[in-house]
Amino acid sequence: MSSKKKSKSSHSSSSSTKTPAQAISSEFKSWKKRNAESELVLEKCNAAETILELKYGSHNFTLTFPESYPSDCSGWYLFSEDDDSKMQQWLERVNDFLESGDRRLKDVLDKMVAAFSDLGIEAGGGGDHGDLDFGDEMEGHDPFAAEPEKKKESLDKVDQEVAALKFAHSTSDAATLRLIQDLKALKRSQSKHGFSAEPLQVGGKANLYHWEVRLFDFDGELAKDMAKYKAKTGKTYITLHLRFSADYPFKPPFVRVVEPVFVFHTGHVTLGGAICMQLLTNSGWKPFNDIEQIVVQIRAEIGSHEGGARLELGQDAASAYNENEAWTAYYRAAANHGWDVTGLGPQMFPKI
For residue 95, what are the contacts with CB-CB under 8 A and spacing of at least 6? Predict the structure, then answer.
């Protein structure tokens, strides 16, 4: 334990004159000199949000780097909106590598290139490499603050909308940045059908670590139940809550139904309202899963004919599940299926 601390301290002192972005810039240029033929290109480093924008031919992706790099080499995360199956395999392989230990940039880049080669993913063209752009180093700048008016012209509509939000932050920057990426991806998505998802509001601020999701537009028997539920309550949707920890995306969120109450053993909803899916445990979770993927899969399971979801309309229509009951049901379901939930619990979540 003491030797590890000593090593980190020594490394930190030797790198203290460089900001994380400067260290990234220097290391990428050194790596590129050694790998001049590689199609991997660094398009931009967003120093404020600790995000690298990279390109491999026609494939675009982002890499979140440690905010104290290189004194701290843990907390990398790779993200891409490319839903090609090989690219998803590539993301999973590289993120597993990043999660398994501390990494220097050169090791991350080597792993990316090796994984491209192993999976037979070709660059497929991609245009001019251009000059590296590391922007301005603005110490003390809040990366989540709204952009100055003169910069907003260069942002797209979603960037402007998210930049204007006020966030209720209380935990790791890495998790916050990833949740902001997920929020932007959701707002840009053209494939949303049958659901809405937004962070809950706390004192006029968006709590990125606690989301409300509404599911609607089902068919079959569940649609008939929803029509009766609407007649009684005026609501046309199923309400879910998603809670995220400072370890997101390396740990799954906790997902539960708030209301209405389901018939027991239908729709993959437990007696306490937790969602019974391996995806939401350590056994099935992968860091490349984002909020949209989570919601789409849950909605598909609830609405599937195999799931046979039905609402318990014989009870008071206004009845709802509570979170304590949901956790108890979650642990019980995981134990029944043999799924690993080590370290997962209410203690994970920030108090905001």
Answer: 77, 78, 286, 287, 288
The DSSP string of 240-291 is EEEE--TTTTTSPPEEEEEESPBPTTBTTB-TTSBB--GGGSTTT--TT--H
**Mean pLDDT comparison of 28-32, 41-45, 136-140, highest-scoring range:** 28-32
Q: How many CB atoms lie within 10 A of CB 123?
A: 15
Average pLDDT over residues 232-257: 94
**Phi/psi of residue 266, nearest 5 degrees:** -125, 150
The conformation of residue 148, written as its DSSP 8-state character, comes to: P
pLDDT digits (tens, 9 = 90+) for 171-230: 667 788 889 989 988 988 866 789 999 999 988 899 999 999 999 999 999 999 999 999
Digit-coded pLDDT (tens) for 188-204: 886 678 999 999 998 88
Residue 278 and residue 340 in contact, taking contact as beta carbons nearer than 8 Å: no
275/226 Cα distance (integer angstroms) = 19
Please say whether the beta carbons of 224 and 313 come within 8 A. Answer: no
Other C-beta atoms within 10 Å of 218: how many? 19
Tokens of 128: 């001019």
Name the H helices within the chain: 2-15, 20-34, 85-99, 105-118, 149-152, 157-163, 173-188, 220-233, 291-303, 323-337
Q: Do you know the residue count of the chain?
A: 352
| Domains of the chain, start order | 2-118 (3.10.110), 158-343 (3.10.110.10)
Nearest partner of 268 among 224, 222, 220, judged by Cα: 222
β-strand pairing of 40-46 with 51-56: antiparallel
What DSSP string describes 100-135? TS---HHHHHHHHHHHHHHTT---------------
Instruction: State the sign of the Cα–Cα–Cα–Cα dihedral 258, 262, 264, 270.
Output: negative
- pTM summary value: 0.67
